[in-house]
Each structure stands twice: as C-alpha cells, then as structure tokens.
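Before the break, one more example. Copy the sequence into your notebook; we will annotate it together after we see the structure.
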Amino acid sequence: MFYSRSSIQRIAILSVHTCPLAMLGGKKTGGMNVYVRDYARELGRRGIQVDVFTRSQDDCIPMVMHDLGENARVIHIPAGPEYPIPVKDVANHLDEFTRNVVRFALEQGVAYDIIHSHYWLSGLVAESLRETWGAHIPIVQMFHTLGHMKNQIASSAAERAPRERINGEWHIIHHVADKIIAATPAEHDQLVGLYAADPAKIEIIPPGVDFGRFHPIPKSEARRRVNLDQCKQNILLAGRIEPLKGIDTLLQAVALVDKCCPDTLKNVCVTIVGGDPWADDLDAEMARLQQMRADLGITEFVTFVGSKDQMILPNYYAAAEMVVMPSHYESFGLVALEAMAMGTPVIASEVGGLAHLVRDGETGFHVPSRNPEALAERIFELLKNEALRAEMSRNARCYARRYAWPLVVDQLVVLFDSLVEQKSAALYASAAF
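Here is what the structure looks like once it is written out:
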C-alpha cells in the first residue's frame, strides 16, 4: 500500500487520563482509546517513532510497553496514586506528569518533532512540555468530547462538565494548539459556535477503522465464538455504561416491541457490551439499567455481558443483525464505523458524529435522541426485513472503506509536515531579525 512520505521522525502522543491498552467498555475507556492505539500503530508501520504517554494506574505494569507494534511504545508515567482515580482528580497531578515525561525523554535522549494531545488534560500538559522542549514544537489537539456539549445534554448536575474543564478547553483552543482536529463537520461547528475557535485553526479529519480486525465473519461462526444462540436474532449495543449512551432508550424500545408485537422477540436477544454487571458494588448507571430491565419485564431478552477485548468484539458485531447507538451525544461514534466495516447495519441517534457517519436508509437508520417509539419502529423493521438488512450490510462495508486507517493517517501526516515546516520557517524568520 502507498503511504504518504513524511519528514517527521518522532511524535509524542499524550493520552493522560486513559491508556490505549486498557480494556474497552470500562468507565473511561472507549473510542479515544481505540483511536490512539490504532493511529499510533499505523504511524509506527511507516517508520515513525511513536511514544504514547499515559498516567500509570497500576504499579505492577511495566513502565514501557511495546504492545502497539514496531516503532511504537506506551509509556506509563507516574503521576499521583498508581491506581484508577476520577478524571477530575487527574487534573491535580498534571505538573508531576509533565515533570516525569521530561525526565523520561532526557534519560532516553530523545526529542520530538510534534506533540499530539488528546482530551483537554493532555492539552494542558502539551503546553507545559513545549515550555521545556522549545517553541519550535507544534501542538495538535483533539478533544474527542467537549464540555459544553456534555452540559447541553446533561440531565443532572453530576453529569455536567466542571468549570475547570470548560476553562481548560477554551485556553487550549485560543492559547495552546497550533491546530485542532475535529472528527466531523458537526464538531467543527461546535468548536466555532461554543468556543469561538478560529475556523482556520481547525482541520476536519475523521478517525479510522482497522480492516485487519473489523471485516465480515460468518454469522454462525461469530455466534459460536461468543456463545450466542444460533437460532436467535441479535441486537447489539457496545459502549461505556453511562447516561449519555442512552441505553435506557434501548430498553424502553425493546419493551415497546414486546408489548406491541410479542411474538417478535421470542427469537431475539439483546446483548449489551460494556461495564461490569457482576461487580459487588454496582456502578450507579449499571444498577439503574438492571433495575429498569426488571421493571420493564424484559430480563429474558436483554443480557449485560461486560467489557470485551477488541480481539473479541468483532465477533459480537458479526453475530448481530444490527448495532444500536441511542446516544444523546457522540463526537464521532467509532462503534458505528466498526460495525459498518463488519457489514452490520446501525440504528443511531441523529446527534453529533453519528448524524454524519450513519447514512439514513443506506447503512442503517437515524432516529431522534431519547425517542424509544422511533427506535422500536426501526428495530422492528430491521428484524423483519432480511432483504433490507442484506442491502444495508453491503452498503455499510463499502462506505466504511473510506475510513481505512492508512487513508486517515495520510491526512494527518500531511498536516504534521506542514506544521513543522511553518514553525521552522517562522523561527528562522524571527532569528534573522
């Protein structure tokens, strides 16, 4: 495969609060983890040296891990207690994180051509690193989610982003980042409209999908691998167990299908991947959803199977007739892209990135957020119409091809090269005076 050539030799990727090697579907693991992991791996394949810096959350794990493949390392940086802590508390340890990254680079004798920071906490660390490493190093920022957007859909004070986050995002946008990568046109508009970002500073480059991992698998084989009933149709939801994912909307929709057309669900199972449904001390949202499942009388249809490794996840996609994403907010919706690469239609809320990624009537359906009636209607339609599912499956696989990681990283490399050249030219010009 042809790759865009690059003058970049080494990149520092910052993913302070979450590790790209973490199990997916956990409390703070999801699309960002997948993005950082697969993007770093693709850079490494091209001969670019990649160091991903993340906060150490387990002192038994080696500081440096090479699980991302050739030329790519994950470096676990001590900063605060070496166990999981709330994201809001990670902000208290950014200075220590920065100091230990600087120390690591000095001991290794390495220098970086560019910093790519993910989430607002990483953007603040990037600013501090540049103060030490030099003004010539460009900073590229991705937020993945935005505090103002989270607040727009929050249903309680506990779900709102803290003022510290909003202020941090604003500061990074206006005073730190040389370029901001938006996953979709919707995120571009949110950055401009909610944060007064300079449109010229924003590049729209979507995440990618690994076709080596996400490709069609015979349904019977996939169901055997994950121990699903061969005789039942399967509806899948995969993601973190948190209110903004709209899992309650799916449960309500399933109950509506059962009430209106009870025979339909006799040969259907609903599988929810994510979280830990067997914990002694259940997460509040998991407990709420399990109680709702019981109250709606759909326990026999709906199963929580917990978080799954990405090596197993493709089998769940392939085993399903459809993937449902009733989210209230998604900056992109990587699960939808992975499902479509597998050839599985997606029913998704018409919000954020999902409104751009899922093509209504072609690769799946759009439904309004928080609307179980509309979701139930589309679920019923796909369960009953095998020909439509087959057509959407073909369309989904074809459409997903444009998001292959090599194509996405080509765009990123071009951006990085241009930024390094611009920084070098600007410093040369200032030195001449």
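The first strand starts at residue 10 and ends at 14. The CA atoms of residues 349 and 368 lie 5 Å apart. Try to locate both features in your own notes.
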